[in-house]
Amino acid sequence: MIGGLSFSSGVTAGSDRRDPRAALPWLGGFNLLPYRQRNERLARRRCMRDWAVAACIGVSGVLLVAGWQSFATARLDARREAAGQALARLAAPLEEHAKLSRAEEERRKAAARAASLATPLVHLRDLLDALSFEPGGSVVLRQLRQRELETEVLATSSSHIASAEWLKRLGSIHGVQGAEMRDLHRPTGQGGASIEQAIGGPVEFDARLRWGDPPPKATRALKAAQTGGAR
């Protein structure tokens, strides 16, 4: 006996041989911290619930984005189809408009080219109109050479004064920018007399007319009206 407690060695030894765990002291059949297991179960349930909610939100977002993309794609396809149908209906009018535009552009180019080519003819016509009103006898035109913006004339006049006046009248034609006499001499066979000696007799001269822009359409009619009484 120890301190009022007695132990039976035989029973203890026998029980040790039968069950080794019987040597451990028995602490009782209750848990000292019962709330820990409950908290762990609650934490696991809460974590699983959060995961499920997050998964549901993610799947919902993906489905929403996919649905919106499908809707936008369908709407764009519908607009593209409508635009294609509208363009198909306008294909013939657009082709006709393009053809007319090309024809109009070619017509403008042809008109500009024709006007450019006709400019020397317009100048020549105005010069011939002016020469048709010249009184005969004082100046005789021998040769005329027409270029794009220049006319060269070779004529014979009764005197130096008559040739100067004739050239001055040609310089007043509409469109002429300048008239100059480049050469003045006595006709062949008059000897080597100077210009001063040829003033009182017939002379030959070479002149040049410089043209500017072509005259308007009304120039010829206006000139005929102004010079109609001079013929």
What can you tell me about this protein's structure?
By secondary structure, this protein is of the alpha+beta class. The chain has a domain at 118-230: 2-Layer Sandwich (Gyrase A, domain 2). The protein contains four helices and four strands; from the N terminus they run H-H-E-E-H-E-E-H. The protein has helices at residues 9-18, 34-132, 160-171, 218-226, and strands at 139-146, 150-157, 176-185, 203-211. It has a four-stranded antiparallel beta sheet with strand order 1-2-4-3, with helices on one face. Strand 1 (139-146) and strand 2 (150-157) form a beta hairpin.
Would you summarize the structure shown here?
The chain has four helices and four strands, in the order H-H-E-E-H-E-E-H.
Total helix count? 4
What does the radius of gyration come to?
61 Å
CATH topology of one domain: Gyrase A, domain 2
| CATH class bucket of one domain | Alpha Beta
**Head-to-tail CA distance between termini:** 177 Å
How would you state the average pLDDT, rounded?
75
Low-confidence stretches: 1-16, 190-199, 217-226
Helix-residue proportion: 55-70%
- What's the order of the H and E elements? HHEEHEEH
**Beta fraction:** 15-25%
Largest sheet: 4 strands, antiparallel
State the main characteristics.
4-stranded antiparallel beta sheet, 4 helices, 4 strands, 56% helix, 15% strand, disordered N terminus
